[in-house]
UniProtKB/TrEMBL annotation:
Keywords: ATP-binding, Nucleotide-binding, Transport. It comes from the Bacteria. CDD domains: ABC_NikE_OppD_transporters. The keyword DNA-binding does not apply. This is ATP-binding cassette domain-containing protein. Residues 10-259 form the ABC transporter domain. One of its GO terms (molecular function) is ATP binding. The keyword Cell membrane does not apply. InterPro entries: AAA+_ATPase (IPR003593), ABC_transp_ATP-bind (IPR050319), ABC_transporter-like_ATP-bd (IPR003439), ABC_transporter-like_CS (IPR017871), P-loop_NTPase (IPR027417). It holds the Pfam family ABC_tran.
Amino acid sequence: MMTKADVPLVKVDHLIKSFGGKRSLFSKSKSIHAVKDVSLSINRGETFGLIGESGSGKTTIGRMIMKLMDPTDGQILYDGKSISHFSKKEMKDYRSKVQIIFQDSGSAFNPRRPIGKQIAYPLIKNKKYSQDAAMKEVYHCLEMVGLRKDFANRYPHQLSGGQRQRAGIARALVLHPEFLVLDEPVSALDVSVKAQIVSLLENLQKEFNFTYLFIAHNLDLVAYFCDRVAVMYKGEIVEVNTAQQIFRHPQNKVTKKLLGSILTLDGSLNEIKSEAYEINSIN
Ligand SMILES: Nc1ncnc2c1ncn2[C@@H]1O[C@H](COP(=O)(O)OP(=O)(O)OP(=O)(O)O)[C@@H](O)[C@H]1O
């Protein structure tokens, strides 16, 4: 008998996304085939890496899973059910269960409002929390990401890059998600801050059994952070394997090329790893 654990949390089935190709009176714009027939499954509690050169379609897949855009064809199943067939209520739940963290999540904060109020907003607006109850939850989330309570009163420009990213993570946590799309979550940060954020994401995953889709355009953190990895090239997946296999025995020439670029990053990878371990052992 199939149990809940046997059903992948996220299943992407023959997904296609094209942009453009619209005909006007005078011309027809060229279509961009951003995602061409991609299928993948992400299991509960897994960190699934999606890597590939810039423009290979990674973010487009992440955005379709988040239902920020619709596929041209194919489907996305969440917990065994097609997200395009969700009822209004199911879609509302889904919008809480899946969250995204961008490269600079802090830039998505409104510069003119304190971050605490912004983190509290969906609780008050969608979940009908009182102001006090929402702020209590905000303080708790800030604490979980290693920010003091008083950060709630700060404006985005009063935070460092690393603190802003932590605040962005706090905002994603406030709705108690299950699945997080991490779209280059540490790319904009210094090496030591990178290590802290990666360590934070790891600890949160251990605590809440989060499932992660980790999007990156090189392999520096993937080998360390991910369980399995899919390599994309021009809208298609060219290789899927465990991170170890991808890293040690790459099969496809695209993977080998991406790995070539990590050789120069190896030093910083080791630095990131040792710092992450250090931080973990301090905590
Ligand atoms: N809204 C859009 N309209 C038109 N083209 C788009 C749109 N979004 C993405 N594209 C195109 O789709 C292709 C895939 O883009 P996508 O952002 O998914 O790549 P990526 O692998 O995430 O790249 P990067 O690593 O640089 O973020 C690119 O050619 C991009 O220009």
